[in-house]
# Entry
Amino acid sequence: MDGNGRWANRRGLERTEGHSAGEENLARVVRAAVARDIGWLTVFGFSTENWIRPRAEVRHILGLHEKLFGRVAELNENNVRIRWIGRPFDAPEARTPRYVQRAIRRAIADTAENTGMVLTVAFDYGGRAELMDAVRAARADDGQVTPEGIQRHLYDPDLPPVDVLVRTSGERRVSNFMLWQSAGAAIHFADAPWPDYSPADLDAAIALVR
Ligand code: FPP
# Structure
């Protein structure tokens, strides 16, 4: 969800206001994705590298995750099941504060019965870290490293292969996101910064694979 900061700068606003607009837009994009019968939507909310941003910005983004994971009524109305991928809370390098952990756990439990789209939020996530952890765990299982073994130890082994990877805000590079799962993905580049990413942009991405 690139471009929140640039969106805010262009309007003479604080970067944090761009993130808030980004969170609002995520709610809109989720509704649009449900209306288009998308089965799985996975978004990059916070990376393992994002902790080094200014403290006030990090605090704001954490609060937005609490807000997003708190949208349980809206998720239930749309029959959306929420999930999370990221560095396990008990990993030595993990830094997710307890209030975010609680919000994540509660939202997962309170939407577990929904049968529609699965919305997965990547929080404290890095694709290489996920792969390293999966390879280590696969080897610890039986001394072998196989594709099946790696798949089994990804943060969420149930996530299907990625059909379309979307990059917003004119970025044209891969971003340490779902490296294993997106091996065969189409890539859609949208020029809109994330707060302006629209249902029409989503349609253009879907058109690559439907
Ligand atoms: C990128 O914009 C966005 C982030 C670093 C993550 C935060 C995303 C949100 C707050 C959107 C809402 C989503 C959730 C899951 C709460 P950037 O800061 O890199 O913008 P820039 O590239 O213009 O500097």
User: Anything to note?
Assistant: The two ends are 23 Å apart (CA to CA).
